Structures are given as C-alpha cells and as structure tokens.
Amino acid sequence: MTEETMDTDISVPTNTVEDFLRMERMPHIWCPGCGIGTTVNCFAHALEASGLDLKKVAVVSGIGCTGRVSGYMKLDSFHTTHGRAIPFATGLKLANPELKVVVYSGDGDLTAIGGNHFIHAARRNVDMTVILLNNFIYGMTGGQVAPTTPIGATASTTPYGNFEEPFNLPYLAESCGAVYVARWTAFHVRHATKSIKEALLKKGFSFVEIMAPCPTLYSRRNRLGDGLDQMKFYRDNSEILNGADTKTLGLTFQGKITVGKFVDKDKPTYLEAMNAFYAQKFGDKFSPYKG
Ligand SMILES: Cc1ncc(C[n+]2csc(CCOP(=O)(O)OP(=O)(O)O)c2C)c(N)n1
Ligand code: SF4
User: Which residues make beta-bridge pairs with 51?
Assistant: First the structure.
C-alpha cells in the first residue's frame, strides 16, 4: 500500500453536524456521558431540516454547562450573563425582527435566576424558540438544587433530599402563553429534532424541554449510574402522549415521564399585537414598527 492510498483508507466520514459547529473550539467541555451534546446534534439536524437561512439565525445562552452551546454553534451567537438569555434575545428580536432567535440554556439559568424573564416572554408571546435542557440541577457550579429538582432527589445543597415542589415546565410555559410546547428526553433524538424544527418554524414563543443526563453530578449523587443508564431509564419509563394536558406533566424522582408535543396554537406575537393595537388607536398616523 502506498502512502497515498493509506491516507484515503483511514479517512473518517464527516459528521454533517460539524458544518454547524465551530470545530476549532473542540474538544468541548462536557463530561463523558453528558446529554447536552446529544441535544446539540438534534438542534443541528433541526436547523438543517428547517430550511432557515442560517445567516438569519442567532442563538443566545446564559451561563452553565448548557450555556456553552452558543459558543460552539457556527451561528451568530451571544453567551450572556446568568439568567439573562431571554432579555438579550428579546432585544435582539426587537432590534431585528427578521432574525430567528433561539435561546438555548439550562433549567437553572432559565427558570431560577431567569424565571422572571421566562414567564414574561411567554406572556408577551415574543417570537423566539426556547430550548431548555433539564438535567434537574445546576451542573456547572457543582450540582446545587434547582427549581426542577424532583422531591426526594439529593443535590449538593440538599444532601438529605429536596422537599420543594419542582416546576412542571410545560405547564408553566403554556399557562404563561407559549404557543408551542413539547418535552422530550435525550433518548428521543428523532422526536426532539422534529419538535425543535417545528418550534423554529413557529411564530411566537415556542418551548422545547429536553431532559438529559448529568452523570457527573445528578446521577452520581443520586446513584443512578452513568449516562447510558439514565438513557435506558428514559427509554423504559417514557410514554409519548401528544396533546396531553400540561397540568398532568409534573415529574417525580425517577418516576414515569410523559413526553410529546402538548401545545401548538396560533396567536399574535408581541410585535404583531403592538402594531395592531397602535394601528387601531392612531390610524393613518401610525406606521408599523419593522425594526
Ligand atoms: C449572577 C450569577 N449568579 C450565579 C452564577 C453562578 N452560576 C453559573 S452557572 C450556574 C447554574 C447553571 O445551571 P443550569 O442553568 O441548570 O445549567 P447546567 O450547568 O446544569 O447546564 C450558576 C448558579 C453566575 N455565573 N452568575
Ligand atoms: S457537570 Fe453535568 S451537565 Fe455539566 S458537562 Fe458534566 S455531565 Fe454535563
């Protein structure tokens, strides 16, 4: 075998996802078995399937292990301060309504310190897609309890178990006004990809929760095995129930998980509502805001 043919023989097929990543930033920081990378794979495939012009897509993250996503995507991106991804994203969308703005962040970032922004962006139906990675704790800072930690699960700040009621995120999103709501796990890669694609193409506040293993902190502390064990748990304990009433979707510690698409409806976005309201009030004197 010549040196030339040897080179061709060992060539590795390129993963199409690489086109969506800043490969010069690899290797990434995520631990072996972490579910975040799997969800990024879904996101990249959803972007590809959506047919969106990638020059008009921006991704915004807060701080956390999941927050690193914005730094790895080969898109216009903002890695903002902890909890503030949604206000940054809202500003971006209002300044340039042509953009498809995606917020990609952790459960702590979006529903603890950032919870206020989450509920108001949903209430206003700001046109953005929020992808929330739920690993049930604060990963980056050492596994503290989060508003999503199930009752009974231990975290570094609840060594004897959490006793606070966690958020039911799909219910929270729907009751605040989200027009698209879905939940999947990192095991459901095809479903999650399809939902992200639908969410990207939806006008208004769309929300996709993806449950994913954090083997280093959540699983280890709770003796749930490694990332693969958690994926098997998702496989064996999830039920797909599209259209389920979001009130029924609360999660318990290692209990049954309902996944699916729960909400898909239409209503005027923040900008549409604003323009319609002032057009009616001021008639010809008003010219619609276009950014
Ligand atoms: C204002 C502020 N408070 C606290 C922190 C510390 N901090 C960084 S990431 C993080 C939690 C991240 O948890 P989550 O959003 O669930 O993401 P994960 O790391 O689990 O993906 C915290 C509390 C910070 N960076 N800034
Ligand atoms: S600490 Fe947990 S969430 Fe963070 S990269 Fe490691 S496994 Fe993933």
Answer: none
Q: How far is the centre of ligand 1, averaged over its atoms, from the C-alpha of 148 (Å)?
A: 14
Sequence-separated (6 or more) residues with CB below 8 Å from residue 215: 31, 32, 33, 34, 225, 226, 227, 230
The residue type at 213: P
What pLDDT does 1 receive?
Answer: 43
Report whether residue 65 contacts ligand 2, using a CB cutoff of 6 Å. yes
Is 198 within 8 Å of 221 (Cβ atoms)? no
> Measured from the CB, is residue 108 less than 6 Å from ligand 1?
yes
Tokens representing 283 are: 């008639």
Q: Convert the pLDDT of each residue in 137-193 to its tens digit.
A: 999 999 999 999 999 999 999 999 999 999 999 999 999 999 999 999 999 999 999
Please identify which residue in the block is written with the tokens 């729960």: 262
Radius of gyration of the chain (CA): 20
Which residue(s) pair with 21 in the sheet?
73
Q: Please, are residues 203 and 269 in contact by the beta-carbon 8 Å criterion?
A: yes
Q: What is the second-level CATH architecture of the domain 30-285? A: 3-Layer(aba) Sandwich (3.40)
Token look-up 């939902």 returns 195
The closest residue, in CA terms, to atom 1 on ligand 2 is 139
Token pair for 5: 């043919």
**Whole-angstrom Cα distance, residue 234 to residue 255?**
10
pTM of the model: 0.95
CA distance 76 to 61: 12
Domain positions in the chain = 30-285
Contacts of 245 (CB under 8 A, 6+ apart): 262
- Specify the ligand 2 atom closest to the Cα of 227: 7
Amino acid making up residue 275: N
